[in-house]
Specification:
The protein has a single domain, classed as Dihydropteroate synthase-like (TIM Barrel, Alpha-Beta Barrel). By secondary structure, the protein is of the alpha/beta class. Helix 8 runs parallel beside helix 9. It has helices spanning about 40-55, 95-110, 125-130, 150-155, 180-200, 220-225, 245-250, 265-275, 290-305, and strands spanning about 5-10, 15, 20-25, 60-65, 115-120, 135-140, 160-165, 205-210, 240, 280-285. The chain is globular and about 45 Å long.
Length: about 325
């Protein structure tokens, strides 16, 4: 059975494990891999957010900077290092705030009861977003890229998602494959969660995300999905985002061509259902309604106890703290 938690996000506690929660994605960017800037304007982003709430989203994740493959991201986003011809400059703090704050503010004005997460690796953006009404900081770098992020989250007392990423998006194509991707993810998430707690982030505020597609090539995502339940031994809730990722496009390849983003919905739903049955507490997705419906069936199976934990014959890669 999936372990249960009460995730403390500061202003309230979310019950995790009784049923799968669904986190709807709001990309306030002009270059998102999944929607191509469809919700870049604040009004469109807010309208989409309200639509996702009607479809059953439990959490809305608002992000103002793309971390798609090849994107330039760095804590030194204004540094000379990033202004070389070989690297594109990541967006500034001011621009990211301009994108996300009006959306968060309007969502909370319209639906003050809803839970909002901000997808950022910058401490200043996190602070402003929490002040605007967000309750969760979802950091793709697991607090590693901005040295001020860990202390900021500790002081804010909000919820936090620490995601696993190998390298940076602009480096992914050249990363050597790990011998055991599950072991690497377990070891590094354990290390990064411990660092956050040592810096004052309370354990009950932390959730972990194995980072499907983030520095993992196509075939490396399947052992991570198949052995996802091993990450439960770390003792934290699990957030999973496989929605429309390139490894799904590759699996659905036809006539030598990967399935485009708009043809990955069914493959996405299959991967999300598998993640639920392997113990994921929260699914981060673009297709909220389909995920909500799938979660009802997966949760019914989990409640019956028919889904056995663990993988027979495999040694667990994770251990408790």
């Amino acid at each position: 059975m999936r372990p249960r938690f009460h995730w403390d996000i500061g202003t309230r506690r979310l019950a995790l494990g009784e049923r799968t929660l669904v986190m709807g994605v709001i990309n306030v960017t002009p270059d998102s891999f999944s929607d191509g800037g469809r919700y870049f304007e604040p009004a469109a982003a807010v309208e989409h957010a309200l639509h996702l709430l009607k479809e059953g989203a439990d959490i809305l994740d608002v992000g103002g900077e793309s971390t798609r493959p090849g994107a330039a991201v760095s804590p030194g986003f204004d540094s000379a290092e990033l202004r070389t011809p070989q690297r594109r400059v990541a967006i500034s703090i001011a621009e990211e705030l301009r994108r996300v704050l009006p959306v968060i503010q309007e969502i909370k004005r319209t639906r003050p009861d809803c839970v909002v997460s901000v997808d950022t690796y910058k401490a200043e953006v996190a602070r402003a977003a929490i002040a605007a009404g967000a309750e969760i900081v979802n950091d793709v770098s697991a607090f590693r890229w901005d040295p001020a992020m860990t202390n900021s989250v500790a002081e804010l007392g909000c919820g936090a998602v620490l995601m696993h990423m190998r390298g940076r998006p602009e480096e992914w194509r050249n990363l050597p494959p790990p011998k055991d991707v599950v072991g690497v993810v377990c070891q590094e998430l354990r290390q990064w969660a411990r660092a956050a707690m040592d810096a004052g982030v309370r354990r009950e505020r932390i959730a972990l995300d194995p980072g499907f597609g983030f520095g993992k090539n196509f075939e490396q995502n399947y052992p991570l999905l198949g052995r996802l339940d091993e990450l439960l031994d770390l003792g934290f809730p699990l957030v999973v985002g496989t929605s429309r990722k390139s490894f799904i496009g590759r699996a659905l390849r036809r006539d030598g061509r990967d399935a485009p983003v708009d043809e990955r919905s069914f493959g996405t739903l299959a991967s999300e259902t598998a993640a639920m049955l392997k113990g994921a507490h929260i699914i981060r997705t673009h297709d909220v309604k389909a995920c909500v419906d799938a979660a009802r069936i997966a949760d019914a199976l989990l409640r019956t106890g028919s889904q056995k934990s663990g993988v027979s014959g495999q040694q667990k890669a994770c251990t408790d703290f």
